[in-house]
Amino acid sequence: MTRNQSLILYPGIHSRTITKQNNELIFCCQAEQEYTIELWSNLTVQKNWIAFQFTRLQDYHLAISTQHLKPGDYEFTLRFKKGNEPWSWYGSPNKNGQVYIVPLLSVTTPVMPQLFLMAEKVIESMHLRCFKAPLIQNAPISLGKIDQDAYVACIKKGSCWLTPIGGMTKFKHDTNQQWQLLLYKEQGNIHLWLPVAQTSEAWLSPGINNTVDFHYSLSKASETHLLIASTTTDNFYHLVETTLNYYKQFIKKQSEKIEYKNIPMLQNLGYCTWNAFGKSIDKEKLFDSLNSLQSNNIPVRYVIIDDGWQETSYERITSMDACKEKFPGGLKETVSEIKSKYPFVESVGVWHALWGYWNGIDETFGKDYDHYSVTDSKKNKIGLIGNPKKFYYEFYSFLSDAGIDFVKVDNQGSFQDLMIKDKISVWDSYRQAMIESAEQFLKGNIVHSMALTPHILLNPILSQNHKSIFRNSDDFFPNEDESHAWHIYANALNTLWKTPALVGDWDMFQSRHLFAEYHATSRAISGGPIYITDIPNEHNIKLIYKLVGQTRHCGYNVLLSKQSPHATFDTVFGNPMEKECVIGLYNLHREKDNELVYGVCGFWNPGPHDLLGVVARSKGLSMAQAIAYVVSGQEKGKLVRLNLGNNDVQSIDITDNNAPCVMSVRVKGFESCLVSISTIQSLGNTSVACLGLIDKFNGTVSISQTILQQCYEAYLTHRSSCCAFWINTKPNQVVLDGQILDPGVNWKWDNNTGLLQLDMMVVPLDITTSDTFCVQIYM
């Protein structure tokens, strides 16, 4: 057997695929040469090993029905040959890919005789049970054994972060792990276990012999619950969202619904000083960065002055103003000079810790706020104050007067490490004071960092005026090669926690870096803020401009998804950091006042060997045909028309109605790939789809509205040098903002693929006052 990188199989030979009876198993293969390729598998009624032959035109595809197969474990491998040569085998001896077929069963929810059943609800296809923990001293309580097929858990990483761990049929016994969320697949069900408490701690841990233990601290102020939700569908995001809503409505008794507004800051590209300078930031270095951004025409609109600007002593804040040695004129003069000298900077933010600095507030500085000292679990002396409301009122009033528009508040979870009994109430008093003063002086604009911890997520104290930005994972570490794939994976899984009030921040990145595009593509579809942390004059300008588009009246801003992406089933339950599969995410964009939906799928290869990502028709898209277009990666420019429910590989001829339902893309080791999906509209013999700005990472979000009548009209919020459409017939004329474009010069149509590309930059911006750009295509 051999590992042949010119030939790649999906699912990978080291993977374990879980599917239900009646589902079709999709296998894809890419080869750089012409081969005869067969899947060798026991996916048969009698589990006899037979050959299933792939068919090929562009790529190799194979669909195997599981309708007639019994539940259980199956295996597969691959063999291939050229012409009459002997067969060669793919992979390693006795290392076959695995398939587990689960039965079609009705939903079942685990019973917990160790706990008190308080409530039971059926919500659509989901069953939810609410259990209360007994007030006994002999916790933890063993909740029994689980026979899962695959699982993922979000565990506490220190006091400020959550991070995912995944696995298959066996838990690794570790009583030190604190699981704050457990999601697992068992037979035909997906189960969610969520321990919740309002003023104390609660968590799960893997016990011996694949059991789960329930830990909690006794509190007279609030009860501890375990919420268990189950479903037979694969919509685990709905499972988590519904369970969190139940906790809010029936345990916290918060039934009001708030329509959260979007944050204007999200529309703009930002810059942060942290990875460029760390704590050594000063006025000279800050202005070097701004000069570099200006001279390279990088369309940054906001700046974050991160850790290092404050006046401190022994890791405690000693003043509200900036360090006099680093910023001689003080914070107000610095910000004033920034906004006058660099008019492209619309807003400036500063960093601080929730309790002031890493070890709190200096005793002399804090005497007016009832200063006192406590010890944390590492025996550090932390300077706290008894009147955080007065402190935050004066602090944020000072920042506002200095011209500061927002704050990044770090180290929010560390109150859990304090060696005091009332740490939760002290913690919440700081949080409440911060929010109230931010609402009054900073329009509520806070970037919450080191706050990904259960008490904050389950008991949020947030702005009531707009959504709140929350860091979604630990930091971007530019010098730690092994951290980059993990960063994408952690962010992908932590999106499970997102609620309508929260916007996930995937952290800054550097545009000139070995993993720059790896990070940029993830930020493009993250739905959160996009900001860079480049060293002066070390920019990848071409990469940066793939994240932004030009508007009619507001310059360049980011092409942003309106919500957090969803991780694919294989990413959640396939354990991609250990198994041979890509990290997969997708996000959706909906036209204004229209049912048409566009998708963007992303794949990140966490290992050194080339892998395949597979794009299939999503349940979030309409039932019509669609065009899949590779926006970035090794196969950039690849175009495939997708059908729904037809797995035969047919001709990709643009007039053919028997198109495949999947597209496979090769993703090189430690690289990424984005694929856009656009729904096809048809009228008579004309079929057309808008692909958006294909020279951008997330260009379909620029599509505001499309209309197919006598001509096809598309309205876009942004423009670029390459706007694209798929059309099954050659256009006669293309018009942009009322101006007829020259065929062959300003637009071209490919007869083989149906791809129409046009340059939107040739028409002046001021030709109309409309906010949108109008493309009209006459057939």
UniProtKB/TrEMBL annotation:
It catalyses: alpha-D-galactosyl-(1->3)-1D-myo-inositol + sucrose = raffinose + myo-inositol; Hydrolysis of terminal, non-reducing alpha-D-galactose residues in alpha-D-galactosides, including galactose oligosaccharides, galactomannans and galactolipids. The keyword Lipid biosynthesis does not apply. Pfam families: Raffinose_syn. It comes from the Eukaryota. Signal peptide: none annotated. Keywords: Carbohydrate metabolism. One of its GO terms (molecular function) is galactinol-sucrose galactosyltransferase activity. The keyword Secreted does not apply. InterPro entries: Aldolase_TIM, GH, Glycosyl_hydrolases_36. PANTHER family: GALACTINOL--SUCROSE GALACTOSYLTRANSFERASE 2-RELATED (PTHR31268:SF32), PTHR31268. Belongs to the glycosyl hydrolases 36 family. This is Alpha-galactosidase. It comes from Thamnidium elegans.
